[in-house]
Every structure is written in C-alpha cells, then in structure tokens.
C-alpha cells in the first residue's frame, strides 16, 4: 500500500484504476487512485447491459470530481475473462477507455485467505493487482489478448461444428445399441437384421427419428471441414469447397483415439 502511494506521489502519471467483478444480477465496481488507503466499492445492477456499463462510466466521472482528479486523468479498467467474453472491452475501447481482460487463474491467492471469497473482496483484489501490474509487476496478473470480432466468430463457428459432430456420433451410437438388442450388427444405415428378417416397423421408425435428429444439425449448419484464411487476413475467407463430414470415418477416428 505504501508502494502504491509512493508511486502516485512521485513524478509518475496519476492513474484511476477500476476493476469489475461481473455477475448476471449485478456488478461490483472497485475504484482506486492510489492516494487513499482503501478503494471505493460500488454495486451496479441495471437490468440491461448497455445501461449497466453506462452506470460504470458514470461512477468513474463522479469519482473524478469527488477525488479532485484531472479531467484527462488516465483511467484503466480491468475485468476477469468469463461468460461475458469481450463485449465490455470493445464497448470501453469505443469510449476511448483503456481496458484489460485478465486471466482469472493468473491472480495469486494467499493460502490463509482462500476461504474468504466474495464479489466485493474479488473486486478489491483485482484493482490492487491492476495498479501493481501498471507499475511493472507483471507477475500479479496475466492479460489476455483480445481477438478481433472476425477471429472470435471463427472460434464460435468451429466450436459449434465440433459440438454438432459429437452429438451426431452420440445419436449414431444410440441407434447402433438399439439395433444390437435385436441381433442387428449391421451399420446403422441398414434396416434389416443380421439373420435377414426385417425389423419391426416401430423399431424402424424409432431408429429413423434418432437418425434424423443426429444428421439434420450437420446438414443445417453445412460447415466446411476447414476454415480457409486469406494470407495476411484475420477473417475467414470463402472455402474452396464445402462438404459434409463422413459420419462413419468420424466414428472410426473417435474410437481409435479412445
């Protein structure tokens, strides 16, 4: 704490550090300029995302006036990476507010304080670590590189594709087990028993429904096998060819990896 005060009372630039502890119902906001013993902590609970972020900006402006800070004081905001992803970062950057997204696992935790964990304490710890990080103590937290909107969209695309492939294999495995109970060891595309007698109509309809549930998502998404990129571009270009995934080959690959 003394080091923080020495930092702000020297010839170094004055900084208003702000940390956000995010939750669905409310955010905890901790503010510290380094000239006071304890940070100020507030709660914003507006029901809409844009209004809640604006409430944070209003808090910053009020504390500039309350603490008699210069109008152009450097403001640095940080928050931990989580389900809110990077929209807060991009919204603050659009308002010309410096922002950093932090890896939650990189923040050191003192062993004897591990049981004490609340949103208020987390916000205070984050703002303290932010000020230390700005002073050059890089071991206090690790900042995440924020991807471009195009790269983030590409990540979601490939993640969804992988999830759909997994679901399709699960549906096929269920159909295979259903047929095995009646002595059919053929591939799930077949509707005849191994002995040659036809399956009961109800069984065939049940298998067909399971097959459709498993295959439709892949056809609906119609994703390429690979996302091709233009040289020197971060966006996803149009692939040379689109083709559906071979379910049998995917099933064999997954089994081999196991």
Fold and architecture overview:
By secondary structure, the chain is of the alpha/beta class. The chain has two domains: 2-140, 2-Layer Sandwich (Nucleotidyltransferase, domain 5), CATH 3.30.420; 149-257. Helix content is 44%, strand content 12%. It contains seven helices and five strands. The protein has a five-stranded mixed sheet, with helices on both faces. β2 (27-32) and β3 form a beta hairpin. The longest helix has 32 residues, at 149-180.
Keywords:
258 residues, Nucleotidyltransferase, domain 5, 5 strands, elongated
Unreliable spans are 5-11, 223-245
Major β-sheet profile:
5 strands, mixed
Dominant shape: elongated
**Topology as a string of helices (H) and strands (E):** HEEEHEHEHHHH
Concise account of the structure shown:
The longest helix has 32 residues, at 149-180. The protein has two domains: 2-140, Nucleotidyltransferase, domain 5; 149-257. It has a five-stranded mixed β-sheet, sandwiched between helices.
Secondary structure: elements and pairs:
Blueprint: H1 2-9, E1 15-21, E2 27-32, E3 40-44, H2 49-66, E4 74-80, H3 87-94, E5 98-102, H4 119-134, H5 149-180, H6 201-221, H7 247-257
Parallel strand pairs: 1-4, 4-5
Antiparallel strand pairs: 1-2, 2-3
Helix pairs in contact: 5-6
